[in-house]
Amino acid sequence: MPNAAQPLDLLLLPSWLVPVEPAGVVLKEHGLGIRDGNIVFIGPRTEALALQATEIRELPGMLLTPGLVNAHGHAAMALFRGLADDLPLMTWLKDHIWPAEARWVDEDFVRDGTDLAIAEQLQGGITCFSDMYFYPRIAAERVHHSGMRAQISIPVLDFPIPGARNADEALHQGVELFNDLKHHPRLSIAFGPHAPYTVGDENLEKIRVLADELDAAIQMHVHETADEVAQAVAERGERPLARLARLGLLGPRLQTVHMTQISDDDLALLVESNTSVVHCPESNLKLASGFCPVERLWQAGVNVAIGTDGAASNNDLDLLGETRTAALLAKAVAGNATALDAHRALRMATLNGARALGLEACIGSLEVGKAADITAFDLSGLAQQPVYDPVSQLIYATGRDCVKHVWVAGKILLDNRQLTRLDEQDLAATAARWGQRIGARHE
Amino acid sequence: MPNAAQPLDLLLLPSWLVPVEPAGVVLKEHGLGIRDGNIVFIGPRTEALALQATEIRELPGMLLTPGLVNAHGHAAMALFRGLADDLPLMTWLKDHIWPAEARWVDEDFVRDGTDLAIAEQLQGGITCFSDMYFYPRIAAERVHHSGMRAQISIPVLDFPIPGARNADEALHQGVELFNDLKHHPRLSIAFGPHAPYTVGDENLEKIRVLADELDAAIQMHVHETADEVAQAVAERGERPLARLARLGLLGPRLQTVHMTQISDDDLALLVESNTSVVHCPESNLKLASGFCPVERLWQAGVNVAIGTDGAASNNDLDLLGETRTAALLAKAVAGNATALDAHRALRMATLNGARALGLEACIGSLEVGKAADITAFDLSGLAQQPVYDPVSQLIYATGRDCVKHVWVAGKILLDNRQLTRLDEQDLAATAARWGQRIGARHE
Q: Which of A64, A87, B321, B333 is the most interior residue, by most CB within 10 Å?
């Protein structure tokens, strides 16, 4: 029981509460108490109502879950949403996205694009996201102001990028940003070497040294397509994951994104090193990249998180929808309808994401002592009736429009679907202006 | 131009209008005029404003498309939504769904379940659906009252079902219903032999004779899983589709649902006979049934429609989401990111559905002379910004919560997200009551 002498800041009384840890549990008639941004009480409604609380919220028909963790994306690319569709990965990148980035991406773009992505993600029940994009200091600043939680990955490539003339400059900026923010309660800085085919051994080794020194995470696109692996084998005689292992990059701090190609040796490397995989099913489908064998990874003990990827490829930042796709797809890929059931899918979208990002001590489940990062879903709509199992309904029958309230570190950032710190109309107008400028040039 | 002497009943002025036919066209600054339930004008805004109209609706930020056609489902099963999840098809059917149906399905169940399904589908932009469930006369009556359009398929199995002691009784009821409703402007009656493994040759031959006589459509689950095909080959030495061909059932009036297994011979049979396929991607994924090769079918000239399947398996009646899944999945299955692009996906969800149901002369595209079955999507939200191509945004970035208005035969059935003929609260309460009764028994 929390200290009874000190009142709760907020007591939430939902119809259902799914803590994610312990696994598979659905609590009915329970309350959740928050003080100083943290969860300090979870218990039966009757006990909850005996506590002092500054604010009490009855949430009838609502399901409380840990806030969703979007473990991979490129936030500011929201401004390129739908700019170039229905194209293969390399055509999309080389003929459309990279030229558009060269033409348009500057600090203003990243500021406005990141704000748009933050707003969309909050509206979709996401409380924490991983970002990998140019001008990471700008992105970090937007996250700071928004009240959201994020991992900002410093993009590193062997060639010049917007905001950094070369990899050394990018790394230097990254280390500075890391040090500036190392005590920030909601921001963590990671290294983001783009992919095995865009970052050579020399820069990967530098990243390994710096990440070891700073105890920083690393996020990287790895084995996104069969072509990537085949080309690496042809050119270097080595699969990319094996190369990362040789360079000493595998480990619990590494987040490998996509991983549609997994040989038995790859799986053994992931398991032994305790490396996380970030699954981006809709991006993999849309770009025809392949199928990540999620159930096989899960059963082998690999931590599998989930990400939306950037809105330019996908074309939304809807983690609930992404999780539904993952849950449906895993069954067909495994040839087994019991694969990735609804409860495990929710775990992938919360606690596994937190673990991938190194944040599992702080977020990812509703447990006393963790930060109050919480999403309230309204399951009272027609499309959710009847409710036999709220987790089944959440994963298989509920859209992100049912997200009603979102708290990060106990602060309400979405209240009855209204953003509390961002101006929705202003953001939409700004995005539309970017769209007009970019679209006119692109046509 | 419409007869200028007679005013339009309604003139719609959206930001974008996608007629579907001709293919790939996006009209900006256009208006659509309706009189007596039909589309009588599509033309530039300036011309539209010169016409007399009883009502004019400005629809800024909105996209008009043909109403979505849900070409396969089991409407009343909405009351079993999420009752039994994450199970293989035969376990799900034999251990859960069939016992629940035996226990619960009666006329009241079908009335309340069909109303729930109609409401959910209207809220999701669907104007026409295909139903295959027990007590089809009750379902037809609910459709009649709702103002929606539907094909009601008379379920036929070799064993007794709720409402019919045997196949002959079901067929007799079906013929009666067909004759009673043959002049109904929004209802068509089809035969619904459940599947090759539940209907023997004798009953299939009767259905062929009756369907030929009445010029009625036939909808049937075919090749849903690899097991179904393997078992048929083992038992009969014949693939189910080949058996249907031998029995004379293939043809433009036949709607084969699922078709995850397609050999070269199967494909040739479908093409030669002009038989339609109804793709249900989320059901196929969730039950691990397999992958329908949509792009291969499409390129061969087969008409591919799309259906949600019943909410008990899937667990929603969200055809827009289903279409997004289909568009994403088709690319990965074909190994080609250009497969089933956004415009073709929308065509699959509208005109191809109309064609499968034999309704393409009346609905499925926004063309002068067709019925005014229309959906207005609001693309002004943050998650749709910026809008480079409204069809890309619709298919890849828009949820059914963006459905704003729905008209069927010119009558508004969803107005600013409010159902005009059904009481949402009443429906939710009724569904919740069923859920409590069924759930208590099931646990």
A: A64
CA A424 – CA A431 distance, rounded (Å): 11
Contact B22, B341 (CB under 8 A): no
The torsion angle over the Cα atoms of residues B126, B128, B134 and B138, rounded to 10 degrees, is 100
ipTM: 0.96
Beta strands in A303-342 (DSSP E): 304-306
Alpha carbons within 13 angstroms on the beta-carbon side of residue A246 total: 11
Q: What stretches of B78-185 show up as alpha helix (H) in DSSP?
A: 89-91, 98-104, 107-123, 136-146, 167-181
Structural tokens at position A41: 């009480």
Put simply, the answer to whether B82 touches A389 (Cβ < 8 Å) is yes
Within 8 A by CB and 6+ apart from A330, the residues are A294, A295, A339, A340
Q: Which residues of B touch A315 (CB under 8 A)?
A: 392-393, 396-397
Q: What is the DSSP letter of A332?
A: H
Q: Comparing C-alpha atoms, which of A168, A275, A161, A272 is closest to residue A217?
A: A275
Task: Please judge whether B325 and A321 are an interchain contact, meaning their C-beta atoms are less than 8 angstroms apart.
Answer: no
Q: Is the dihedral of CA A171, A174, A176, A182 positive or negative?
A: negative
Number of Cβ atoms within 10 Å of the Cβ of B274: 15
Judged by CB atoms closer than 8 Å, whether chains meet at A120 and B329 is answered as no
Q: What whole-number distance in Å separates Cα of residue B369 and Cα of residue B358?
A: 16
8 Å CB contact of B342 and A86:
yes
- Predicted confidence pLDDT, tens digits, chain B (443 residues): 555 569 999 999 999 999 999 999 999 999 999 999 999 999 999 999 999 999 999 999 999 999 999 999 999 999 999 998 988 778 888 899 989 999 999 999 999 999 999 999 999 999 999 999 999 999 999 999 999 999 999 999 999 999 999 999 999 999 999 999 999 999 999 999 999 999 999 999 999 999 999 999 999 999 999 999 999 999 999 999 999 999 999 999 999 999 999 999 999 999 999 999 999 999 999 999 999 999 999 999 999 999 999 998 889 999 999 999 999 999 999 999 999 999 999 999 999 999 999 999 999 999 999 999 999 999 999 999 999 999 999 999 999 999 999 999 999 999 999 999 999 999 999 999 999 999 876 55
What are the Cα distances from residue B33, in Å, to A122, A274, B6, B403, B404? Answer: 39, 62, 12, 20, 18
Is A332 in Cβ contact with B428 (below 8 Å)?
Answer: no
**Are A332 and B291 in contact (CB < 8 Å)?**
yes
In chain B, which residues have their Cβ closer than 8 Å to the Cβ of A392? 82, 85, 315
Tokens of B70: 């849900």
All domains in chain A, ordered by first residue:
10-66+372-409 (2.30.40.10), 68-356 (3.20.20.140)
A286, A289, A397 ranked by CB distance to B316: nearest: A397
Closest approach of A1 to chain B, Cα-based (Å): 32
Chain B residues lying within 8 Å of A81, measured CB to CB: 385-386, 388, 393, 397
Total beta-carbon pairs less than 8 A apart between chain A and chain B: 216
Number of neighbouring beta carbons within 10 Å of residue A117: 32
Angle between helix A107-123 and A424-442 (nearest 10): 130
Instruction: Give B322→chain A minimum CA distance, Å.
Output: 10
Task: Decide if B288 and A386 are in contact by the 8 Å CB cutoff.
Answer: no
Bond prior to A274 in cis (omega within 30° of 0): no
